[in-house]
Amino acid sequence: MRTLTAKPLTRDAFEPFGDVIETTSAPERFPINNGSTMRYHALAGVELKGDDARGIVSIFRGQPFAFPVTLQLMERHPLGSQCFVPMRGERFLLVVAPPVDVFGVDDLRAFITNGSQGVNYRAGVWHHPLLSLDRVSDFLVVDRAGSGNNCDERELPEKVRVVM
Ligand SMILES: NC(=O)N[C@@H](O)C(=O)O
Ligand code: NI
């Protein structure tokens, strides 16, 4: 079985796959509301493609996984981005691959968040379905609803084990 080591999530390392939603690396921030609020501006873009596409907000309540995590499939959303923001500072595990039609296990990358980070998968980026860690975790999710198929699943050619 192939082993993949999860690395700490950083904006630069995740750039080929999407955006990191956090204040520390925010490229643009400015005070609003007469100075009582700091706006960390445009941390991620919401992509909504295809017929009657609309953006929706949901909550995903994920059951926790324990390391080593065994992967068997990946998925992508060709018609829209998908972002996950933990609602109570939960860490979670990300496994991604570039937005290409054919990828191999060597293309997989694993990241672990620090509890103060969310992520936005760009449309078409392969990712593993939500992998909560430590405890049952709630995530605010912004993604695309509308007609057409927006979820392709792909079995991995071999099982992959993710370790810390
Ligand atoms: N299926 C679904 O809505 N969830 C996945 O897209 C996921 O990334 O967890
Ligand atoms: Ni998804």
From TrEMBL:
The keyword Iron does not apply. The keyword Lyase applies. Gene3D superfamilies: Ureidoglycolate hydrolase. Pathway: Nitrogen metabolism; (S)-allantoin degradation. Its EC number is 4.3.2.3. One of its GO terms (molecular function) is ureidoglycolate hydrolase activity. It comes from the Bacteria. Coiled coil: none annotated. Keywords: Lyase, Purine metabolism. CDD domains: cupin_UAH. It catalyses: (S)-ureidoglycolate = urea + glyoxylate. Its cofactor is Ni(2+). Catalyzes the catabolism of the allantoin degradation intermediate (S)-ureidoglycolate, generating urea and glyoxylate. Involved in the utilization of allantoin as nitrogen source. Homodimer. This is Ureidoglycolate lyase. It comes from Natronocella acetinitrilica.
